[in-house]
Model the fold of this input.
Amino acid sequence: MLAIIGGSGLTKLSNLDVTYRKATRTPYGEPSGALTFGKIRGRDVIFLARHGYGHTIPPHEVNYRANIWALQQEGVKQVISVASVGGIRADLVPGTLVVPDQILDYTWGRPSTFFDGGGDGPVVHVDFTHPYSEPLRQAILQAARACGEPIVDGGVYAATQGPRLETAAEVRRLERDGADMVGMTGMPEAVLARELELQYATIAVVVNYAAGKGDSADGIPFDQIESALQDTVARARRVLEELVVAL
Ligand code: HPA
Done:
């Protein structure tokens, strides 16, 4: 079973025929909202809006553990996350879709493991050399090619704490660290999926230049984000539709 976790601009999948919704609880609390079961082009999919269906949960308060746990309980094996980002690398301009291949984690204070001791189980250290599932990344790239949507293969996703945006100096530091894009939700979502042995990959939607870059030299133009978001998320939806059929 495939799950799609939608971020900003993707609280609904217009191409999803909803079968039913299911409110669940987990040992870690409640997910961001009810799981939405449905079909895209005849294929079963579970959809979850990361920030809640009314977009009320900020990035640092998303219950990432409950979200990933709830999906795994429903038999999910593959998770595609859609996440908006600011572009740092010169070619990642607003409107770009990108499938990152690496992560830098600057978040703090978020419950970020299912293996936090307390029980009788052994200490577990998961391998995270390649944080995203390569087969799933390739499937996304292939689906984008199949529907003619340009998409960038690879890039380093920096996860910041939010909810505030970065300072220009912070973005320069991220760049020196090797980051190509910056968002607030990529971690711990990716590592929690890895801990539960789910395949996980991200379609990042560039909605603005990161602080201090391009149009954001003197501030983030929020009005432009909204239009970039709508257009680009619509393209991400087409890729998802193609992907669901291919998987
Ligand atoms: N920074 C952090 N998160 C984001 C940004 C950004 O510029 N744009 C969208 N999500």
Remarks:
- The two ends are 10 Å apart (CA to CA).
- Residues 222-246 form the longest helix (25 residues).
- The mean pLDDT is 94.
